Queue: 2 jobs
Job 1
Amino acid sequence: MRTRAFRYAAVFVALLVFVALECLSALAPHPAATARNAAKAHGWKLDQLSLVEYHYDNGLFGGSAQANYKSNGPDASKAIRIDLVRPAYSANWRVTDYHEDK
């Protein structure tokens, strides 16, 4: 009887941890917002860029994302790739690579 109670308690605690991690994930800024802020930090105005491709993956303990933009402005041939990573659910997304193709 004691073993069964321990198993139920372990499953309950595991579910609580999972729900807590999901809640922490929802509180972090969206990776697309972090990518936009990175582009702004490199001198781009948001109306100068069009999002071409965007994807992100969340793993058990973190995630990765990539946003690809193209320029709408005078230099329309520029393409921008921004790679992001979130090492843990409780961490914010951070830029790991910023690349402009000319």
Job 2
Amino acid sequence: MPPARAPRRAGRRIRTVTGLAITQVGRLLATEAVVTAVTGSVVGAAAGLGLAASAFGLSGRVAAVAAAAAAGGITVAVTATITVLACTSGRPLAAVLAADE
């Protein structure tokens, strides 16, 4: 019997257990992370706007500060997500998790 060969990356797509290519799983996780970050920032800004409106009344200044807070939150969350994805891309999940311990 010939020895077992490692799967080739060139010319053939490596598939996960789910049938998705590894690149597709990476894209899915990146999209999920960015959507979660943006959603959290928008919900946080909406909650802040509601609290500020009840405390100070709804004015143009309060709405502008809430919009700036939402933009800042989205920027920070997306930057953090992209940084993590850039630092861990191409590494096996077990290696990434082991490095965190």
